[in-house]
# Entry
Amino acid sequence: MLNHLKIAATAALLATPFAAWADGHQEFTIRATANSNENDEDYDGLIVFKNYVEAASNGRIGVELFIGTQLCATGAECLEGVSEGSIDVYISTSGGAAGIFPYIQVLDLPYLMSDDRVAEAVLSGDFVRTLRDKALEDSDNTIRLMTVGNTGGWRNFANTERRVQTPEDLAGLKMRTVVADLPVQLVEAMGASATPIPWPELFTSLQTGVVEGTANGITDIMGMKFPDAGLQYLTLDGHSYMGALWWMSNENFMAMPEDLRRVVVDGFSQLQQATFASPKRKSIEAYEAFVAGGGDIYVPTPEEKAAFAAAAEPVQAWFRDNVDGGSEMLDALLAAVEEVEADIAAAYASDLN
# Structure
């Protein structure tokens, strides 16, 4: 009986939000915003961040969440708020930050990272510190990159017209891209036609034939009900990891004493892990729903995947030649990937024998 009571008490404690234990006097408030919704990985990460930071600081830091466009509506507007200090934390995609930090699009370069294990190790290492230092320098020490998580898994080609098994199958398709140069270069390298379309307009654009395809993760595709707009063909080429860039006002971060800055850094580590995990879990149901609705999923063979990568090679050269800071950042990413792949190979050599 005593053991049962101990187990029940432990379970109750683990189920209690850590923040509920914090009883210290609040000294700092972090206003964090994500232009998404409560079903998104960004929200999952922020809930974990809020819970950890408020508890680990014993209530000295309070975290307020603004989900949607209450504080700002676009990447440029939100990052301006971070720079000015009116917004403490903001999450952007590469495209959302490219207007201010063009080299950040290095994360969208196709076929550089092969899977989650590689991407998560790279984005937990010194490569992100290289990006942080460059962004701080270019923003006059006002915008600090805290971590890079995930927001939707991997980008895959999807369309309304046909199964895509090779780059040639993309030829002639009208593909939606974000409003940034690099995705346009990728689509055109594949022989398709690129049409920048804002995210809120994509459903209608697919439905009316303004565009015939897009490059997104399965959770976004199902969350936005794109199959209802005719999107029925999905090719799991996994050409780029959907990185989520978490920015913070450097002035507000540095205004905290070192012990609280450590709490915030640890909080972003917790957030990162939550956003790494969330798309994996949510994608299971999303893939099942896509197929149940008549969707066609194709997994390229290694040879076909190599053909996609070969077709995309000119995008790297374009990035080096046309993006300020691009060559430096691409070299840093390639070096980080090479180091991680060597570590993983060594781990396999030990774990498989």
Q: What stands out?
A: Residues 258-292 form the longest helix (35 residues). The radius of gyration is 21 Å.
